[in-house]
Amino acid sequence: MNAVAADHQVREFRERFESVRDEVSRVIAGNDAVVEGVMTCLLARGHVLLEGIPGVGKTRLVQTMADVLHLKFSRIQFTPDLMPGDIVGTSIVREDESGRKHFEFQQGPVFANMVLADEINRATPKTQSALLEAMQENSVSAAGRTYALEQPFFVLATQNPIEMEGTYPLPEAQMDRFFFKLKLEFPDVEQLNLIVERTTRQSEPVARRVLEREQVLQMRETVRAVPVARPVQEYAIRLTLATHPESGQAHEMAKQYVRFGSSPRGTQALILGAKVHALMSDRVYVSGEDIRAVVLPALRHRLLLNFEAEAQRVDVDAVLGRILESVPGPAQ
Amino acid sequence: MEDRTLISNVLGQLGRRLWLGRMIRETTVCACVVVFCLICFRLVEPALAGGTPFAEKSAWTMLAAVFLAATLDCARRLRRRVSAAEAAAAADARANLRDELKSAQCFLAVVPPQSAMQALQLSRAAATASRLDPAKLVPLGMPPAARTAAAAAAMLIALTWMAPHPMVADVAAGERGVRAPVSGLRALLDGAPEGDAQVAKLKLALETLDKDAADSREQARALADARDAMDQADMEAAHARETLERLAASLQDDPKLEGVERALRSGNLDDARSQLASMTSQPVDAKDQAVQAGAGPDAAAGEAAQARDSEGRDLGSSAAYDQEAIKRLAQALDDARERIEVQNRVNALRRRMDSQLLPVKQSGQITANRFGNRTTDVNPQPSPETGNVDVRGGAMFHEAAATRGSEQQDHEGSTRGDASGESEAQPLQGDATRRLDAQLKLETIRNDREAGQADAAGEAGRPYVITREQKSETAYADVTAGAYDRAAAMDHDTVTVGRRREVKSYFLNLHDESGQR
């Protein structure tokens, strides 16, 4: 592939991305950044955790995304009595035409391209961990066999940050497997007007299918092809190290309020997310600005604050904001 | 042109311009540092000129070191060339290119490009680079901050050089009006005794002032030396007068030398000298005659007294004195007359110099309150009773009040002395006498010590801090240090010009009578 073909590929990527965003926007009022974040996770081969109070459109957003993308979609409503087998599937006894009985693996809802794990923190850790292998390895092991998941495999989990009673907060290992953690804010007046207008009439807007599975896979390849210059890569690493309180490059605020900093997956998320952001900005290289644009969703769930931060009500986003201000960019 | 070459060329141009810009900036900073040091040196130069040569040399050395350090630092910074990465980063930052050139510069090292995306990035970066104008992106010229600094430095230089510092004013006077009449000043010393040290010093100082090759510092030093010599001549004359006064007092009880004593008291040295001369000639004959006739010295003295009785002079017993003593007395009179003669000539010289130099010196900010290290705040109710003695121009009063009192002063009951001069005097020590300002500071320190003891004793149970008048900020070691007198000699702001002579004469008339009590 030469430069002209690459240029065409990049232009195509943008057009497809924008078409998805526009189509989702016909149904979802506001939250454009969240829509872009979800698309970024999908194209960067990651999974997304959506957090927001009830009624802000988390599930609706995922359903709309599934409608827009021609992908196999399944929804799992996480409840305390949900078992791992309910997610990955189970072996059942089948009898063939000759009367012989055998075990046959019945695939669970995880065998889909887009999996909505709704209210994931309501299931037990045992059930939550059933998603671990699927999210990380893109495969499922059951009854002594490993089943590869069809690509793209994309988990969208939602959780409610306010109703914590009877929930099981996600363990750090599982949190780290999410590419982005996106927060859905309460809509403002204009967005509320749009929501009311769209949802209280005789017919609600319906999203059209604009992207095929193969196109998604092609876009994923395009993202991976974006080159990253060494100074930009080092900038992402400096940002990651600044979150580690024991690191020599730790920020003062991290030393004071952070118990554990971001994992290397955080750096990977920074680079991959920045690549998508760069392509969306019609650039074929990653700049410091792209890195900065994805720092909050990529790192906010990877930092574990200490007791002092909780006591002083210091937010992770505030810590990351200060780190962003202090760490010099690649051009400095 | 190939994309890589184009990007490299643009980055090279940017790098050169960045280096030139850095050179201009560093040179400006270096120049500002040097100018600042020069201004500082200019401000402290008058103080250094009167100090030890070591201090002056040290200051010059320090100035040269600062200049050298600034130059070396500038050269060190300029030695490092601007790299392509730095040029790319600067271009990205200034043209808001979002790291495009910096990324491209990194991808330049990979030959051939690892991917089509890299090649695409390079071609896009080349297009961007071709649109850049290095002259606009990196304008050569003095940065605004440097321009502001240069303007401030220029203003500071102008203000510093325009303000007439006393020292500078003296030098300026030396260059303008003093040099011309210096030869006339030297003529005033023509008839002065040749062997007198102060006259020699004055001649040397005037000679220096008259030199065309003498620089401003030498002239200023010569002026200070001249004033020192004049002060010393004054003191020696005062000492001579005191000697005469003491001599007159010792002759007071001798009726036979009453004429000499009267002549001394009236200041008629010629008359006293002639009387003594007659005593050295006449009594020798009478004594010889008495010795030859076998008579005693009393008889010879009686005859001599009778011989002079017709002239109304009581010199009858002069023959009773040793002729050697009479000669020594005559010699003392001659010495005193010589000192007074020198003083008269020096005073004439001083008057002439004052008329030419003092108006120039008064252009400086000279205030009396600087003399005693007092603040410039005006005391609304100055009173010696309350201890509020900080008054403008009140240095004399303050110092006089600190001087010990005398039993014979008019203000009976006071033990603190009197500003009118009726205080005990310090012994005159001739050449060892300190300069007046140094002496005044010594007085201040002594009183400060006494006041400190009183405070220490009295502060214990008091809810307030008692007034600490007469405190000096000058350390005792500073006053007694050898360098102090010279430094003080160059400090013209110590005493106002108008009050200088009064201060001086006041302390010249101080007498130490503590040993007689």
Structure notes:
The complex is a heterodimer of chains A (332) and B (517). Chain A is α/β, with parallel strands linked by helices. Chain A contains 14 helices and 13 strands. Chain A has helices at 3-27, 32-43, 58-68, 84-88, 125-137, 172-176, 189-199, 213-225, 230-242, 252-257, 264-280, 288-299, 307-311, 316-326, and strands at 48-51, 69-70, 73-77, 89-95, 101-107, 114-118, 139-142, 145-148, 154-159, 180-183, 211-212, 258-260, 304-305. In chain A, the strands form five sheets. Chain A has a five-stranded parallel β-sheet. In chain A, α1 (3-27) crosses α2 (32-43), α1 crosses α3 and α9 (230-242) packs across α11. The longest helix of chain A has 25 residues, at 3-27. Chain A is globular and about 75 Å long. The mean pLDDT of chain A is 87. By secondary structure, chain B is mostly helical. Chain B is 67% helix and 0% strand. The termini of chain B are far apart. Chains A and B meet through α1 and α9 of A and α3, α4 and α5 of B.
Brief overview:
The complex is a heterodimer of chains A (332) and B (517). Chain A is 48% helix and 17% strand. With 332 residues, chain A is of the alpha/beta class.
Strand content of chain B: under 5%
Helix-and-strand structural type of chain A? alpha/beta
Described by strand count, sense and barrel closure, the largest sheet of chain B is: none
Strand content of chain A: 15-25%
Please give the most extensive interface between any two protein chains, plus how many residues each contributes: A-B, 26 and 22 residues
Number of strands of chain B: 0
| Low-confidence segments of chain A | none
Helix-strand makeup class of chain B: mainly alpha
State the oligomer. Answer: heterodimer
Largest sheet of chain A: 5 strands, parallel
- Share of residues in helices of chain B: 55-70%
As a whole number of angstroms, the C-alpha radius of gyration of chain B is 39 Å
- How many DSSP-defined strands of chain A? 13
Provide the helix percentage of chain A.
40-55%
